[in-house]
Specification:
Elements (H helix, E strand, L loop, with lengths): L2 H14 L5 E12 L9 E18 L3 E6 L5 E5 L3 H6 L8 H12 L9 E8 L9 H16 L6 H16 L6 H8 L4 E6 L5 E5 L7 E7 L10 H15 L13 H7 L2 H27 L5 H13 L6 H12 L4 E4 L7 E7 L3 H14 L6 E5 L6 E5 L4
Parallel strand pairs: 3-5
Antiparallel strand pairs: 1-2, 1-12, 2-5, 2-6, 3-4, 6-7, 8-10, 8-11, 9-10
Helix pairs in contact: 3-4, 3-5, 4-5, 4-6, 5-6, 7-9, 9-10, 11-12
The structure holds alpha-D-galactopyranose (GLA).
């Protein structure tokens, strides 16, 4: 057992008075490429990172679900049989909406909540919150995997990803796609997950970063963002409107050869939203092909083009993200782009090992020069998806 798992195990035991049945963990994610394509039934290429959320979970005999966060020490509990009514009344709020939302969503996928044993869940995390690295999907995936096992539900990982998405959409209230939970549940070491968000077919794509001498540097701008409000939902609505105007059920069915007609019939803003999604889908396919033909040193231009498309066509970048990307490129990154939903959060840069420190300090100097809040920079490693880390130990 790692130290972090052992510590959580002990804290759970001293807090609840009984040992957990196990500790499960799930990672945050970085999206290598394929942004705002998931809810358009397109392609994405995220990977699981080496920052994880851990959930220590133990069964109770009173039908109550109690969730505790080690971040602020607060607990929330509900009788499982009342969870659906609480959800309908909008009473599941704050951070507890993620773990309780998962329990509720499992009910929607057939778990007989009223008859299942209650659970204590204690959550601990090293995924930075608000950085666009899917700390929310990490909570959802760790809890979903744990409850699936302890309640003997027998749901597959792709279904558990849908459970996490349902919790996020219906309980948290963010109209997000399936990418983050899929990366967290399906990720593998040194690899990305190539996901077709229409069929949900997932392929593990080796990245070979170490062999190529490359590192992924995350630059967290610390500009706060939320997908439950404003811009994200608006972009999603534009995409749906664009697809409808073109007579298609989703932008997945619009190709580059349709763009001339799209330019004629769509207003300028909707056209540019559509063009981003259409070209971004192609960039994902190109990235997967180039990775296997030439390796990661050859994908820099695709990352750059993705950023330009998000900045100019989809308009979800912010000055801090643009500065992070430009500075990283000027100081040795072979490609860089904002990652995640946008309007703040983080950028990623693909950087030769030897130049990581130079990029980090150049970005900090540039931010200071612009009067921006100092960014947080750190490297990430493509890592294993959600897993069980311990079983019950007595004493
Ligand atoms: C957020 C959402 C994802 C996806 C990205 C944009 O991370 O949770 O579903 O839409 O934004 O690619």
């Amino acid at each position: 057992m790692s130290d972090a798992v052992q510590e959580l195990h002990e804290l759970f035991t001293s807090t609840t008075g009984h040992a957990p049945d196990g500790v499960w963990s799930a990672p945050g994610r970085v999206n290598l490429i394929g942004e705002h394509t998931d809810y358009n039934e397109g392609f994405v290429l995220p990977f699981a990172i080496d920052r994880r959320t851990r959930a220590a979970v133990g069964l109770r005999d009173d039908g109550v679900i109690r969730v505790t966060s080690t971040l602020d020490g607060t607990s929330v509990d509900w009788p499982l049989r009342e969870l659906d009514a609480a959800q309908n009344a909008g009473e599941i709020v704050g951070w507890s909406a993620y773990p309780l939302g998962v329990a509720w969503a499992l009910g929607e996928r057939g778990a007989a909540l009223a008859t299942l044993p209650g659970v204590d869940i204690m959550i601990d995390s090293t995924v930075p919150v608000g950085a666009g690295l899917s700390s929310s999907a990490a909570i959802e995936s760790s809890v979903a995997l744990a409850l699936n096992e302890l309640w003997n539900l027998g749901l597959s990982r792709p279904v558990l990803a849908q459970v996490g998405q349902l919790a996020e959409n219906a309980v948290v209230g963010a109209p997000t796609g399936i990418m983050d939970q899929s990366a967290s549940l399906l990720g593998e070491t040194d690899s990305a997950v190539f996901l077709d968000c229409r069929t949900l077919d997932a392929t593990v794509v080796p990245l070979g970063l170490t062999l190529a001498g490359l590192t992924i540097l995350v630059i967290d701008t610390r500009v706060a963002h939320s997908h439950a409000t404003g811009g994200y939902a608006e972009r999603r609505a534009s995409c749906e409107a664009g697809a409808a105007a073109l007579g298609r059920s989703s932008l997945r069915d619009v190709s580059a050869s349709d763009l001339d007609r799209a330019l004629e019939i769509l207003d300028d803003v909707t056209f540019r939203r559509v063009r981003h999604v259409v070209t971004e889908n192609q960039r994902v396919l190109d990235t997967v092909r180039i990775l296997s033909e030439k390796g990661p040193n050859a994908i820099g231009a695709l990352l750059d083009a993705s950023h330009v498309s998000m900045r100019d066509d989809f308009e979800i970048s912010v000055p801090e993200l643009d500065l992070a990307v430009e500075t990283a490129r000027a100081h040795g990154a072979i490609g860089a782009r904002m990652t995640g939903g946008g309007f703040g959060g983080a950028a990623i840069a693909l950087v030769p090992h030897a130049r990581v420190a130079e990029v980090e300090s150049a970005v900090k100097v540039a931010f200071a020069g612009h009067g921006f809040t100092e960014p947080v920079t750190f490297t990430v490693t493509p890592s294993q998806g959600a897993e069980r880390n311990s079983t019950k130990i007595n004493g």
